[in-house]
Design goal:
4-stranded parallel β-sheet; alpha/beta; 6-stranded mixed β-sheet
Length: 301
């Protein structure tokens, strides 16, 4: 029996077989498409192909928060059973989900002060939140306790870099993640925007290159430039919103150059896919530098 359960919300991307193998629990972030609510947060009622095709055809999607009451229900179940739980949430810089988990945990601990439940802000999204969960799996297997793992993750999140390119920034604008000025500036025909998840967990438009192939190559070059020469990558996650060939191209570049113990290609879930739209390729990995150091090196910030 595992000493504690790791739980992610559906803003995180991990292969289903990995989730099953390591006994990772999930809690759904609801989403809607053209007013139809989907409480499962994944692909139970609609396929990824149908979802992204609908967005391409002009359908409107949105997401909701996991409310404190839902977290209270889950946390109470674990507390009553005397089971330990580590929850890893979507970035607090993008969503109120983490804050709601904190509110719920405080309420549950008032009734069950001895419960052993921790909530960690991944300060990331999609495959980045999945990467944090994979690190938790690794530390659990090394024998770290629940509390030790949570503390280690909180210190590690800033070196989990998230770099991505999208086809159309207007999805991020409609979702309130970028201003209209930023979205228009990054949506010139033929120009592909490059973004990252900043130290505070929010999304930042950082650069623009001409053409999709150049955008993929830039993601790769920024990965290599953020590593020491002797670094051997452990786990790399590439999330994509229905553009598998582009994700495979990026994976091939990594395999043929720096390599990695594991490279997971994952279809981006609807929670993040709602906000980035179809055609997003996102790269997540452990770097030798923090996000602040990365921004200073690449952008002089």
């Amino acid at each position: 029996m595992r000493p504690f359960t790791i739980m992610i919300d559906t803003g995180a991307d991990l292969p289903q077989e990995y989730i099953d193998e390591h006994g990772i629990a999930t809690i759904p972030i609801p989403f809607n498409l053209d007013g139809v609510q989907h409480s499962d947060g994944r692909w139970q009622k609609i396929s990824a192909q149908e979802f992204y095709d609908a967005l391409r055809d002009g359908s409107v999607a949105g997401t909701a928060l996991i409310n404190p009451e839902s977290f209270v229900s889950v946390f109470t179940d674990y507390a009553v059973r005397g089971e330990q739980l580590l929850v890893i949430t979507l970035s607090g810089g993008l969503s109120g989900t983490y804050q709601n988990s904190v509110i719920a945990l405080a309420e549950v601990k008032e009734k069950c002060p001895d419960c052993r439940i921790c909530s960690v802000d991944s300060v990331n999204a999609a495959g980045g939140a999945g990467l944090v969960a994979a690190l938790a799996v690794k530390k659990r297997s090394e024998g770290l306790s629940l509390e030790e793992t949570a503390k280690w993750l909180e210190e590690k999140t800033q070196s989990c870099l998230a770099l991505f390119t999208v086809s159309d920034l207007m999805y991020l604008h409609r979702g309130g993640r970028l201003s209209k000025v930023q979205a228009i500036a990054g949506s010139i025909i033929g120009i592909k925007p490059l973004l990252n998840v900043a130290p505070d967990g929010s999304l930042k438009l950082k650069d623009k290159v001409r053409g999709r192939k150049a955008a993929i190559k830039t993601l790769f070059s920024q990965l290599t430039r953020s590593l020491n020469n002797s670094t051997s990558l452990d786990t790399v996650i590439i999330s994509h919103s229905n553009c598998l060939e582009d994700a495979q191209s990026l994976a091939t570049l990594i395999k043929s150059s720096v390599g990695a113990r594991e490279i997971h290609l994952v279809m981006m879930g609807p929670v993040i896919g709602t906000h980035v739209g179809p055609g997003c390729v996102a790269l997540f990995f452990e770097s030798d530098m923090s996000r602040s150091e990365y921004e200073a090196k690449f952008y002089g910030m």
